[in-house]
# Entry
Amino acid sequence: MARPVPKNLRVYMNGHDMSGYARDIGPLTWKYQELDATVLTDAVKVMLTGQPEISPGTYNGVLDNTTAETTHPIIGAGNGAPDYVMAVIGSASTAVAGDPVFGGYFQQTGYYVEGKDVVGVTIPFSNRGVDIPAVYDNPWGVLLHASIATTAANTAIGIDDYGAATSLGGYMAYQLLTSDNNVTISVQDAATNLNASFADITGMTTGAIRAFANNRKAGIITLARTATVRRYLRWQIDMGSATTATFVLAFCRETRY
Amino acid sequence: MTLQIAAIASSIAGLTVSGVTLKNTTGIPETVDPRQPTIFPRPDGFVSGLTIIRDSTGIASQARKTAQYNLTYRLCYTPIGAGRGLFDVYGSMVTAAFAFLDAVIANDAITGLVDITPQDVTAFGPVSDPAGVMFHGCDFVFMITEFIN
# Structure
């Protein structure tokens, strides 16, 4: 068993790697509303499960305003708007495919700066932002591609995140940190974990995107709730005219009806 | 799961520090080559400060535990008096010492452990090699954190 430690946690926001500024983030919340359905003849309280609250909690970091893309310009400017947030629970100094990922599109509800030992920033997040459909109530997926510079398409085998194919859909979450031209990031699946067996999951593609300075890219793309996802998963990239791209990609396979 | 001291010591010995030779526990010199600055596990006091804290319930072979202990390394840079002046090489020794610290602090490839944290740099000045020859050097104390199970 690999036990995570805080230093291996990675936090990405809107295409920016905020890990080097983050002191902590959380609690990563996935909490269902309890609806009281107790009637007079029940011996004990009876609860129904309502809609969940999903939130990354509070981001605590170090204030840095020395360059254009650090905590103050990035997070301060985003106050009051939703952010694409991804927290990777790494089990080693470099996150690997299969590591758990908490991700979503969350409303940033504040921006606090306070100086104690260091001048720190505190960013509270609320629940899901309204701009994208809330199709899935599961914020947890698996990492497919860690934050590593990539120069070519993927020809490696994938991961087995669930042990079987599913037909309950899912979604991909991506953070494109850098690219020197347009790239297309996608999720592929396969019934057999061989390079030749992998094919794009229809719809699981970013289309051509590029990370510019002060305009990085992040997003969530969903499948239909009945979409089939085969057993093995891997990342894929069409480099196009780009020679390098650094991105983080996760996939949440829905396994619940 | 066993403690990973051998892998940790081997991984530290595998770091690259310009102008300095790093030794593993299997290569501690009996006499340090005066022409080659050397960092080696200090034989008298290599491991110290061991604590093991239980993190979960369960029997001994299954319970999660956290082990912490200190490892002490010694830098023998140049024999004292080897230059024309007593402190000719002192500045270079300081540079080499901090280059080793930089290598440890910034390295993500040290295997076998959860974390390594420099705790102290002691005996900064005259230190002896295992044969008793006095060198310009210092001792480094690193705190190691390992998970058991």
Remarks:
- The mean pLDDT of chain B is 91.
